[in-house]
Amino acid sequence: MTDACPPTISIQNLHLSFQNRDIFSNLCTQFLGGKFNILLGSSGVGKSSLLKMIAGLIPISQGKITWDNTLPLPRQISYMGQQDLLMPWATILHNVTLGSKLRAVKPDKNRAKQIIQQVGLVDVVHQYPSQLSGGMRQRVALARTLYENRPVVLMDEPFSALDSVTRTKMQDYTVKLLQGKTVILITHDPFEACRIGEHIQILAGKPVQIYTIPPIDGTIPRHPNDPIVQQTQADLLTLLIQKSSS
Ligand SMILES: Nc1ncnc2c1ncn2[C@@H]1O[C@H](COP(=O)(O)OP(=O)(O)OP(=O)(O)O)[C@@H](O)[C@H]1O
C-alpha cells in the first residue's frame, strides 16, 4: 500500500446538506496527485466536511469523488482531523503506532521514535496524553499521521495550536516527510498557505464554489522572508476578504 502512486483526486458535482440545509452543491475541483494542496475558506463554509467526504467519513448523496489509480481510496488515506483523538490509556509512543496495532502488524518503533523526535516530543515519549499541552497533543496527532506513510494525507488545520516558531518547524518537517504524496491541508492562515502550498484553493461564496489561486513560484517550503511569500499572502488575504463578503 505504501508504494501506490499518489493519485489526483477529482470532485464532480458534489452536494452536501445537513438536516435539509444545503452547504454546497455541484462542487467541482481537483486535488493534484503528489502535491501539497491547500484549502482555505471562512469558518463554516464546509472545508472539514469536504475533507471528511474524501476520507469516507461522510456519505456522498449526490456527485462523485474519483481518483486516478486502481487502489481503494480509503485504504490510501491517512486523516488528521481537528480533534486529536488520542487514546488516553496509551503512551505517546503507543498512540503514534496505534495504526499498526489496529492492523495487527508489528509497530516500527524506530520510525515512530524518529518522527517523535523530529516533532520535538522525545522527552515525553512514555507519558500519557493528559500530561501534555494542547500544542504537544497536536504534534502527537501529527506524528501519528506521518507515521502511517500513506499516499494520500488529509490534514485539517494540523498546526493551529502551535506557536509560530514550532509551527514553522513542523511545516518544514511535514513538507520534507510528505514530499511526493497527495496532501490536502486545510488552514485559516494565508502565510502558511503561501509557504507550503503548491496548489491553493479557496472554498467561498454564495453559492459556495472553489476558486484556484495562480501557482506561486519556488519550491516548498518557501522561506518566510521570500518576497513572493510576503506579497502573495497579502493578496490571498485580500481575496479571502472579498470572497467571504460576496
Ligand atoms: N454533523 C453535522 N450535523 C449538522 N451540521 C453540520 C455537521 N457537520 C457540520 N455541519 C455544518 O456544516 C457546515 C460546514 O461545517 P464544516 O465543519 O465543514 O465547516 P468548516 O469550513 O470546516 O469550518 P471551520 O473552518 O470552522 O472548521 C457548518 O454550518 C456546520 O455547522
Structure description:
This protein is α/β, with parallel strands linked by helices and 246 residues long. Helix content is 36%, strand content 23%. The protein has 9 helices and 9 strands. The protein has helices at 47-55, 73-76, 92-96, 98-102, 109-118, 134-148, 164-177, 190-196, 227-245, and strands spanning 9-18, 21-31, 36-40, 62-67, 77-80, 152-156, 182-186, 199-204, 209-212. A 6-stranded mixed β-sheet has the order 5-6-7-3-8-9, with helices on both faces. It has a 3-stranded antiparallel β-sheet with strand order 2-1-4, covered by helices on one side. Strand 6, helix 7 and strand 7 (182-186) form a beta-alpha-beta unit. Helix 5 packs across helix 6. The structure holds adenosine-5'-triphosphate (ATP). Residues 18-19, 23, 41, 43-49 line the site of adenosine-5'-triphosphate. Residues 9-230 form the ABC transporter domain.
What integer value in Å does the Rg equal?
18 Å
Biggest sheet strand order reads 5-6-7-3-8-9
Number of helices: 9
Structural class computed from helices and strand pairing: alpha/beta
Main β-sheet description = 6 strands, mixed
Shape from CA axes?
Answer: globular
Order of helices and strands: EEEHEHEHHHHEHEHEEH
Bound molecules: adenosine-5'-triphosphate
Q: What distance separates the N and C termini?
A: 43 Å
Mean pLDDT: 95
The parts where pLDDT drops under 50 for at least 5 residues are none
Tell me the β content: 15-25%
Helix content: 25-40%
Strands, count = 9
Family: Belongs to the ABC transporter superfamily.
Protein name: ABC transporter ATP-binding protein
GO molecular function: ATP binding
Pfam family, one: ABC_tran
